[in-house]
Each structure stands twice: as structure tokens, then as C-alpha cells.
């Protein structure tokens, strides 16, 4: 009888606070939509600073700006965490054309992939071999590839509703395309841009040479989807056409940069850490508004919204603006390394790195018990049209913090337009909708509030009470 009574009291307590939780979430959303700071911060980050490639002046300015803005919020702590990052520079604008016959050329749009080596000073021209994957590359063999440019032309799968799944299904040709093609004697690589629509914008992104010696590394560039279609069509008509491209990018020595960190110290459990974050670096073609300026300013606004809503967290809440997610993940690895050295207990981590579009929900990397807790909160989010709660991935920067018991998660906005802008020159502030951005910040804040209030696994605690 005592067990039943105690359980009833616990359940009544949960039911009793649900009205309070509804009120708190309403306050959070109202604050964000009527008194938000994320849009103004992003305006400055995008339009006054611009692109923030690791090791660049833009990245340095972004570190200084975001640290100053966090200090203005009156947080308990704000600091910089040093991290060595790679410095790759694009150089002069790339140039390319298709040569259908001597003297007859058609200009096409390309951009060097991040980490690529340059072409020779006068450029590179050779016959082209089109493949869809590494299996086709292997089947062709060295006799058909040596001395030629390999053209990877596997499109993102348009029938997939989850566009990140479509991206994951073809991004290996960008990342490892040069490494694989070099095994068969190719002298260059052109990769279809990771983009679901047909347009004239090439999309950059990281690539790797693995342990390949410097002298064997070959230049690698992305080509716009329209021009990939053109090149493929021309190859069906004439297998002997040439492709020319010129790029002057180079890898420089590593430089020191920083993760930017701010903290509200917990009132009851200061040694339990919950973090929200995004990556401060971006690619250099646009100003990185969606990738990942949006995640940066949303994460900053989470701490501001907690304060503005009168919420005093039980646990220590940190915002971490990670450096070098795009071409090295050095910031995320450094943060996890330092956390381990200090024996810090990170119970929760949330990353926003999927654009500033309308939030739909979250994906979670956690135990079944913690996920059951999340599902019990679905009705709280329903008025704000947040409905996507699934187990899955979290974020690249928070991934190194994973333990058996903590909760990692990623904000999941509507992704249908994301790859129109991803890593391209149109990832700019004008592509951001203020209200969508602010809804994302509020949704993140709401989840942080709930996990801070109830902990990462209250179901276990309830079962312990019953015993």
C-alpha cells in the first residue's frame, strides 16, 4: 500500500507541474518571437564579418565578436578555449571549361574542394571518365583512367524525404573521390555538387587524401549540378572531349584559434553540465548564415532566453561555439578532450547544425529510458508544431562527448531547402527567415529547460522510489 501511495504522489507531482511547464514554454517562445536576439546577432556575423573559414581573419573576428556578446549577457563565466586548426586558402577564383573539339569550349562553374591541392599554374586539361561510384572506378581500372580526369556524377536521391540521408548517400565521392581516383593514375577529379536542385552554383566541402604522399595528391573540384548534367550529356555524344580546370588553393601551417564558451552555473548540481552549441567556422563561398551561423546564434540565445524567462537552472548550462567543424572537427575534439581531463560530467548536449529553417523536432542519441522521457513531453511541444522526436544522430561537434548514460541530440529543422544553400555562395543572410530562426532558438531552450528540470532519466528514479 505504501508503494502505491508513494507512486501516486510521484505521478501526481509530474501531472501537477505540467501546467507550470506549459506556462514556462509559452514564456520562452514569446520571449524569442518578440524579444529575440538571434537574428540581430546573425546579421552582424554574416554581413559585418562574413565567411569564417578556420584560420581566417573572419574566424578570428567571429571569436572576438561572439565572446563580447556573451559577456554582455551577464553570464557567470565566459572564456576562450585554445585549439589549433588547419588553414586552407582558396586563392584566385577557379576557372573551367569543356572542350568538345579544338578551339570550341563551354565555360562551366566549379570550385575547389576544401583541402585540395592546386592544379599546375597553367591549369590541367585531359580526357574525362564519368563514374557513379567507386565500384565503377575499380571496374574501369588503371588502363582506362590513368592520365585522365575522373568525373563523379552520382546525384543525391530526390525520392528520399530525409535530405540528410540523400546527402549521406553520395558525399563519399566528394570526400574520398581524389584518394580513390589517384590509385588508378587519375590526374584530377571533378565531383557533382551535393545539391538536390539543378542550378549553376558549385558547392564546396571537405575532402581527404588520407596518408597519400604529397607528390601523389591530385586536384579536386566540385561542379554545379547544371554543368554536371551538361558534361554528362556531352560525354554520351563524344567520349573524347577534354575538361580543363585551374585552381590555386593551398594548405598552410596550422594556426591557433578558439572555441568560445559561456556558462550559467547550476544552482543545485553545478558539476553536471548541459551544453548547447553550433560551429563558428564556415566555408568561404557565402557568409555561412545557415551553416552554421544560425546554430551559433540560436545556441547563444538559449542562455539569454533562460535568463529572460526567469529560469534558474539546476545544472550548469554552457553554450559552446565550436571552431573547425567544417574541415577538421578540431574544436569538438578539443572540448571533449579538456572535459575528460577535468573529469567533467556532461549529462546533455544539443547541437544546431542543420540550418535556420522551421524547427520540426530533434533526433536523440540516448538510452531507451531517456527517450521515453522525451516522448512524454510531446504534448508540451505540440502547440508549437514540433512533432519530430526520433532516435538517431546528434551533431558532429557534440559526438565526442558520448557516454553510456548521457543524452546527445540535434535540432532538426525542415531540411527540404537546406542543400540549396549548403556550402555554396548563396548561403547568405538574405536566405534566413527571422521567425523561423527564432522558433528554433525557442525550441532548443524549451528542451534544455525540461532536461534541466527533470534530469536525463527520471524514469529510473521513479522505479527506484517504488523499490
From TrEMBL:
Establish whether keyword Ligase is in the entry: no
Answer yes or no on keyword Repressor.
no
Q: Boundaries of each Peptidase M28 domain copy?
A: 259-445
> What terms describe the molecular function in GO for this protein?
carboxypeptidase activity; metal ion binding; metallodipeptidase activity
Q: Where is it localised? A: Endoplasmic reticulum; Golgi apparatus; Lysosome; Secreted
Q: Where is the signal peptide?
A: none
Annotated GO biological processes are:
proteolysis
Name the keywords, alphabetized: Carboxypeptidase, Endoplasmic reticulum, Glycoprotein, Golgi apparatus, Hydrolase, Lysosome, Metal-binding, Metalloprotease, Protease, Secreted, Signal, Zinc, Zymogen
Q: Which GO terms describe its cellular component?
A: extracellular region; lysosome
A Pfam family name for this chain?
Answer: Peptidase_M28
The record describes its quaternary structure and partners as:
Homodimer. The monomeric form is inactive while the homodimer is active.
PANTHER family annotated for this entry? CARBOXYPEPTIDASE Q, PROTEASE FAMILY M28 PLASMA GLUTAMATE CARBOXYPEPTIDASE-RELATED
Give the protein name, as stated in the record. Carboxypeptidase Q
Biological source species = Neotamlana laminarinivorans
Amino acid at each position: 500500500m505504501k508503494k502505491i501511495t508513494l507512486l501516486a504522489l510521484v505521478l501526481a507531482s509530474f501531472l501537477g507541474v505540467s501546467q507550470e511547464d506549459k506556462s514556462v514554454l509559452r514564456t520562452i517562445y514569446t520571449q524569442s518571437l518578440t524579444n529575440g536576439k538571434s537574428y540581430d546577432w546573425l546579421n552582424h556575423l554574416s554581413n559585418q564579418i562574413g565567411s569564417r573559414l578556420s584560420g581566417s581573419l573572419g574566424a578570428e573576428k567571429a571569436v572576438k565578436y561572439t565572446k563580447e556578446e556573451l559577456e554582455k549577457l551577464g553570464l557567470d563565466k565566459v572564456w576562450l578555449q585554445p585549439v589549433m586548426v588547419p588553414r586552407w586558402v582558396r586563392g584566385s577564383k577557379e576557372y573551367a571549361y569543356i572542350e568538345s573539339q579544338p578551339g570550341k569550349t563551354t565555360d562551366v562553374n566549379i570550385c575547389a574542394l576544401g583541402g585540395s591541392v592546386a592544379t599546375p599554374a597553367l591549369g590541367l586539361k585531359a580526357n574525362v571518365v564519368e563514374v557513379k561510384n567507386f565500384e565503377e572506378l575499380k571496374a574501369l581500372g588503371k588502363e582506362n583512367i590513368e592520365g585522365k580526369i575522373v568525373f563523379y556524377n552520382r546525384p543525391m536521391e530526390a525520392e528520399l524525404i530525409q535530405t540528410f540521408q540523400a546527402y549521406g548517400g553520395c558525399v563519399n565521392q566528394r570526400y574520398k573521390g581524389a584518394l580513390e581516383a589517384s590509385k588508378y593514375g587519375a590526374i584530377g577529379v571533378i565531383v557533382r555538387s551535393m545539391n538536390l536542385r539543378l542550378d549553376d552554383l558549385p558547392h564546396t566541402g571537405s575532402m581527404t587524401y588520407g596518408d597519400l604522399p604529397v607528390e601523389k595528391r591530385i586536384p579536386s573540384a566540385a561542379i554545379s549540378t547544371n554543368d554536371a548534367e551538361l558534361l554528362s550529356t556531352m560525354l554520351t555524344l563524344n567520349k573524347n572531349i577534354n575538361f580543363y580546370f585551374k585552381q590555386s588553393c593551398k594548405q598552410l601551417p596550422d594556426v591557433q584559434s578558439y572555441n568560445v564558451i559561456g556558462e550559467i552555473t547550476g544552482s543545485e548540481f553545478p558539476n553536471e553540465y548541459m551544453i548547447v552549441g553550433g560551429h563558428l567556422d564556415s566555408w568561404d563561398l557565402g557568409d555561412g548564415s545557415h551553416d552554421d551561423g544560425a546554430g551559433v546564434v540560436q545556441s547563444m540565445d538559449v542562455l539569454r532566453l533562460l535568463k529572460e524567462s526567469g529560469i534558474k537552472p539546476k545544472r550548469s548550462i554552457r553554450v559552446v561555439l565550436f571552431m573547425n567543424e567544417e574541415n577538421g572537427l578540431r574544436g569538438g575534439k578539443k572540448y571533449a578532450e579538456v572535459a575528460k581531463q577535468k573529469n567533467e560530467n556532461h549529462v546533455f548536449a544539443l547541437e544546431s547544425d542543420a540550418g535556420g529553417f522551421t524547427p520540426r523536432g530533434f533526433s536523440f542519441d540516448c538510452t531507451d529510458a531517456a527517450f521515453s522521457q522525451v516522448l512524454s513531453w510531446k504534448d508540451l511541444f505540440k502547440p508549437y508544431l514540433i512533432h519530430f522526436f526520433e532516435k538517431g544522430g546528434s551533431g558532429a561537434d557534440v559526438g565526442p562527448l558520448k557516454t553510456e548514460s548521457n543524452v546527445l541530440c540535434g535540432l532538426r529543422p525542415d531540411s527540404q531547402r537546406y542543400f540549396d544553400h549548403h556550402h555554396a555562395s548563396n548561403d547568405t543572410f538574405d536566405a534566413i527567415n527571422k521567425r523561423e530562426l527564432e522558433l528554433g532558438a525557442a525550441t532548443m531552450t524549451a528542451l534544455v529547460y525540461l532536461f534541466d528540470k527533470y534530469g536525463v532519466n527520471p524514469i529510473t528514479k521513479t522505479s527506484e522510489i517504488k523499490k
